[in-house]
Amino acid sequence: MQTFTDAYRFRHVLLALTSKQLKAQYRSMSLGFFWALLNPLVMITVLSVVFIWFFGQGAEHPARVVVALIPYNFFTYCLTGCATSITNNSSLVKKVWFPRQILPLSIIVTNIVHLGIQSVLVVAVLVAFPTPGHILGLQLLWLVPLLALLLGLCVGIGLLSAALTVVFRDTQYIIQSTLTVLFWMSPVLYDSGGRFAGPGRPGWVEPLYYLNPLAGLLDSFRRVLFWGASPTPLALGLATLGTLAFGALGIRVFFRHEPDFADYVK
Amino acid sequence: MTLAIRLRDVSKSFRLRHRSPFLARELLRAVMQRPTRVEVFWALRHVSFEIRAGEAVGVIGHNGAGKSTLLSLVARTARPTEGELEVNGRVAAMLELGAGFHPDLTGYENIFLNGMLLGLSRREVAARLESIAAYADLGEFLDTPIHTYSTGMRARLGFAVVAHVDPDIIILDEVLGVGDAAFQDKCRATLTRFRAAGTTMFLVSHQPSNVRALCERVLWLDQGRLVADGPTEDVLARYREASQQLATRTAAARPAAGQSGTTPGS
Ligand SMILES: Nc1ncnc2c1ncn2[C@@H]1O[C@H](COP(=O)(O)OP(=O)(O)O)[C@@H](O)[C@H]1O
Ligand SMILES: [Mg+2]
User: How far apart are CA B35 and CA B59, in angstroms?
Assistant: First the structure.
């Protein structure tokens, strides 16, 4: 509890660090906030060209990918940013006391701003490209718990990776390789919906797949935003459990080692 | 009289690792039940003392004696490995020149960051901004990023912020004695004013003149142990004597190494 009131007392520091990061990322580029859109825009262009023209996918494919790609990007930016958030501020951590969770949290807040900007793009793509379902509907309310789960997952894994990076030098490399695997283990470029049914597919494959909480979350985002439907209970249920587990683990590991961070950083 | 700082049998150890740990290897060793051996270095051993509110206490000792470690425990950037530590009141610590400054931010932005890290709210910093700027007396340099500042300029800015936070306890680690003579006088005047106002002071300084001018009591650390705790003049005299003896012994050891001796009789 103390940890949360501490963080609240230092909220001004959190905001200052966040605005510093946003400024550092955008100041040098005259494109300004447009930069946040550039990466996903390039991705969408490539997707349209490659998948629609070369692979003969339907015109709805960019929309199908974008609704999962943007949350996936949010996750990876949070994870890689949080991982180095303590070690990149070693002089601060060594010489000044403040609630250390401020550092990873400011990375997450920075990325929430990016996500806000990029959601404009999601809307644009959903308008510009056809989708199979009626998107405007009550199922959009699912976005509230879905975004909360995504945020919880990012906070949990962010705190965990920040603490591990302080102690273990190779954490960053492990994260990089894990992310490569995770990209293909999660439904970003493909739609996992309905692929688990059918002859020759044992029943345990689907729950196993959704043990990756990101898989369940991205699948649910796509169900809501692309198919205009509610998330499947299995995907959403396991994603919730996974988020709670990672959240608890991250908070536990981080706050257990937080008072000793200064002894480790260089 | 209320207690500001109390240490009871406090020890602090650091793990010395010859190789920095890798997560992959540690996990493997954990699985194979072969824990890594770590060498432990005790930087502080069984240190006990109490400082009453309003006291001004200096810490002396050779390099590596554990002075900075002791101050970092009181400032909360590190925690004791053993023993009990109690600190009552708002602490403003300057454990290093320019601690809590971000090189890319301007002087003004750093005043905000530093002030908020020392526990002020944004509004409180804003209210004191003019006074802080006047104290630092850096003119238009306050608008430039502080990586362009000299050491003395950084000291000015850092001290200007600390001088404006009204702490109950002020902790300084070898930050006096930087900057020009006029600024040093200003620092000393400020600290004297703090003392008169009842602020507890806990500081490390290599200049006996500073210790004498500011502290009524001195702690002498040697190899992590508290070897003396008493009135300033007494402890300084004993320290000087011990240092001279050490110098004499070192000088006496030289002829034995084969050189012609000009050793004073011992
Ligand atoms: N993070 C650390 N890891 C390992 N050893 C450390 C660390 N910090 C300090 N030490 C060791 O602890 C001892 C005391 O250091 P310090 O308190 O900085 O001495 P002083 O300030 O009196 O010169 C030194 O021998 C130093 O090498
Ligand atoms: Mg020192």
Answer: 38
| Residue A20 clears pLDDT 90, i.e. is over it | no
ipTM: 0.84
Query: Measured at the alpha carbon of residue B131, what is the angle toward residues B127 and B133, in degrees to the nearest 5?
Result: 110
Choose the residue to mutate in A90, A263, A265 for probing ligand 1, maximizing ligand atoms within 8 Å of C-beta.
A263
Establish how many alpha carbons lie within 13 A of residue B177's alpha carbon, considering only the half-sphere containing its beta carbon.
14
What is the best residue among B63, B68, B72, B81 to mutate for testing ligand 1's pocket, by most ligand atoms within 8 Å of CB? B68
Q: For residue B91, give the nearest of B53, B41, B35 by alpha carbon.
A: B53
For residue B13, which amino acid is it? S
Give one DSSP letter per residue of A212-225, joined into a string.
SHHHHHHHHHHHHH
Whole-structure pTM value: 0.89
Residue B266: DSSP 8-state: -
Nearest to B61 by CA among B212, B177, B227, B217: B227
Residues of chain B with pLDDT under 70: 1, 18-20, 254-266
Of B203, B113, B118, B103, nearest in space to B153 by CA = B103
Lookup result for tokens 């998948």: A51
B260 Cβ inside 6 Å of ligand 1: no
Residue A263 CA: which ligand 1 atom is closest? 1
> Cβ separation of A97 and B93 shorter than 8 Å?
yes
Mean per-residue pLDDT of chain A? 88
pLDDT digits (tens, 9 = 90+) for B109-146: 999 999 999 888 899 999 999 999 999 999 999 999 99
